[in-house]
Write a structure and sequence with these properties.
Blueprint (H helix, E strand, L loop, with lengths): L10 H4 L6 H19 L11 H23 L9 H23 L7 H34 L4 H19 L4 H18 L12 H16 L4 H58 L1
């Protein structure tokens, strides 16, 4: 149940936090619960209404609240446990929750609120696993493409390249100048937040202008100004493609939240209803 995409995490920074502290704690918790489940033999069988069932249910509820608390704690930077520590506990204890909650149910599932709560819990944890994969993989790709630059800095470089291209294009004929004028609209689109295609030619207007300059150079034996303009357009095309891929990856990470967060909220509501039914109507 990971939430938020504003803070990239590297796998080594949270999965191995303090020498796998939370992996050891969650493994110990699972072993204790499993040992109690195997050694305890209630007359009515393993159901949630035995003392062990209530205990496992309480542990499961505590784990759910801890995992949901991460969504709040992640916004309190610099306070207490490092964010990587919270995320490490979030991941490993989320895995332990599936086992403990299943033991609490005594493997008795059916068409009722109790089973719905269990199903939402499994779906939330599975979506969290997908989130771990995303947060381990995509921040690395983003860092590689950004080269230490922000979106604003990339667009500033594109603007500077446009000005240089405009100066050179004015000396090479109206056709090239018109093509360069059209290619400037790509930077305007990116600045306005519109995402270009992420296919091979993610800067189509700049690509078209570059091809026109290439033909112009071929016709005039690689004129020096044409070659210089071509190099500027290649640089601009590369920057726009990188920016486009960056926004695509960020959008993908944010899309994951639209599934994970509602599942987490649904789990909390279902768990509250489950607890209410058990203590007041069971």
């Amino acid at each position: 149940m990971i939430s938020g995409v504003d803070q990239p995490y590297q796998s080594v920074s949270f999965l191995s936090y303090r020498r796998f502290l939370y992996l050891k704690l969650s493994s110990g918790l699972v072993l204790i619960c499993l040992a109690a489940y195997l050694t305890h033999e209630p007359i009515a069988g393993h159901i949630g209404s035995t003392w062990l069932g209530y205990t496992l249910g309480g542990v499961s509820a505590g784990l759910v609240l801890f995992l949901l608390w991460f969504g709040i704690q992640k916004r309190r930077y610099g306070q207490g446990t490092p964010l990587s520590g919270w995320l490490s506990g979030h991941v490993y204890l989320g895995g332990a929750l599936v086992i403990v909650a299943t033991l609490h149910s005594g493997f008795e599932l059916g068409p009722n609120l109790h089973s719905l709560t269990w199903l939402l819990m499994v779906m939330t944890v599975l979506s969290g696993v997908i989130g771990v994969i995303i947060y381990c993989r995509y921040p690395t790709l983003l860092s590689a493409r950004r080269r230490g630059l922000t979106d604003a800095e990339i667009l500033m470089q594109v603007d500077a390249l446009d000005r240089q291209c405009e100066v050179l294009g004015a000396t090479l004929g109206n056709n090239i100048e018109d093509a360069l004028s059209q290619s400037r609209s790509e930077a305007s689109s990116m600045r306005a937040g519109r995402r270009l295609s992420v296919r091979a030619k993610a800067a189509p207007l700049t690509h078209a202008a570059r091809l026109l300059v290439e033909r112009w150079c071929d016709d005039r034996n690689d004129h020096e100004r044409g070659r210089e303009l071509h190099a500027l357009l290649v640089r601009k095309e590369t920057l726009l493609c990188d920016l486009c891929h960056q926004r695509h990856l960020v959008a993908l990470m944010r899309t994951w939240l639209y599934f994970h967060v509602p599942l987490s909220v649904g789990l909390l509501v279902a768990m509250a209803g489950h607890v209410f039914l058990v203590f007041f109507y069971w």
